[in-house]
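On to our target:
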Amino acid sequence: MAFNQELEAVTQAFSGHGVDEKSLVTLLGKWDPLERESFRKKTPHLFSEDHERHFQRWDDQYVRLLKHEFVRFKNAVVLWTMHPWERDARLVKEALKKGPNEYGVLIEVACTRSSEELLGARKAYHSLFDHSIEEDVASHIHGIERKLLVALLSAYRYEGTKVKDDTAKSEAKTLSNAIKNAHKKPLNEDDEVIRILATRSKLHIQAVCKHYKEISGKNLDEDLDDLRFKEAVQCLCTPQIYFSKVLNAALKIDVDKNTKKSLTRVIVTRADIDMKDIKADYHNLYGVSLPQKVEEVAREAG
């Protein structure tokens, strides 16, 4: 099917005139990011252009409509077609509304996106909600994790290849000492620990983790008792393993609704980035392929 015909079919589906779900998912699943951008630009009744921030955003009225018309798979469809900036902005907003159990999504957005992607999410958040991400995180979160979360979501990390190994080794010792003395001064109150995790490049932090293991004999995330710090380190250093664990948790039979939704979130947000690597790590961790696991869970649920 030619792209123009595919575009017409998907547009028809979104108008409520009925294209079967299998066809719709098949078409959306084969589109690359440029084709999805073309779809957004060619459907002004569904998307409006934010000329100031240079991206296309869903019309809120249609999002509400889709939630009723495509109950069974609307999350995947809506998230898949969204501009990535808007998708992340809405994920952050939803996590803030749901409360502490969903704050891992904030870590995920802050630590697995590139600097430009995170900046784009902050721009989209301005456009959608007339607040900044940092402002809403600071005003909604009153627990001890607020300082870490605000710092991570405010970051704009260096993404070059240069790493000062001596500095990384020194900061590994800083983290080691902070963890040993966490009973005296919690990590959430340690400005040096937060500075390292929130400002250093991912390659630098990976070097810090390497030196930490040489010092302590254990991986940094293994020594962290605080869940948010553990998630931040995993997302910064081994994101594919982190996502594999999120997917595995979502594929358990008796988990809550929010945990199950993680499956859609991870597959949609990582599809164009590192899904192949995530599948490989999933297989290495759990001894079964991800598609096979999804099929097994679907059969058991049925």
Notes: The first helix runs from residue 3 to 14.
